[in-house]
Amino acid sequence: MLTSNNTDVNQQKLLMYTLCSNRIYQLTRQVQSLPDLYTDWLATGDTSEIISLLSADNDIGFQVLIASPLNANIILKRLADRGFADATMFEGLTAIEPSSVEKSTKTTVGKLLEDIAFWDANRQYQAYMDHNIQVLRQALGLKRSHLVNIPALFHLPSTEGRTSPYFPNMVNHYVMEDTSLVIRPKGPIINGRYAFEAALEHALPNRNVRFFDDWNADISNNLLN
After folding, report:
1. What is the distance between the alpha carbons of residues 116 and 120, in angstroms, rounded to a whole number?
2. For the chain, which domains are there?
3. Would you say the pTM of this structure is higher than 0.90?
């Protein structure tokens, strides 16, 4: 966890963002050009919210992280099946727009899984991602093994039909060599560990994944986008 005063934290963010941007630039040059992906459903319209490139020791030299509502749904359903339906979704947060049931700190795994409108929306977002995956595979010649699904969820669409991350987006994170610096996504705590953090570490076994707290900045201001 990164802890410091505001000035130091801002300097750390600037340094990490610069290093991350340079690394993405180098990988993008290696790929030559990324295809146009469908992002009109995102509030920011930014591709970095749904995919990112990481260097990898494989046949193409990199892997593609993919934001996956389906992956998040599978994780939550497995937790409910294991008896953790009453686990709080946002353990450790004191307030997230109390007027919104969807974002209430009292929301549990079970209550969220029962939210039909929420999951209908996220199934549509997954369909958009499935389309983007096909575009990436065809344009870059990617295999399934080159893609890494990362749990991600998104809010119900706004009146403009756009959405934003339900919890801090782990796809879009700071990269320094073999270290990934990721905003803690919170989520249910199971056996002393955040379930979504454990999922990311499992998905990236060869990386040093470190988490730090910056929920409000990411959710409220989209500082990483």
Report:
1. 6
2. 6-221 (3.75.10.10)
3. no
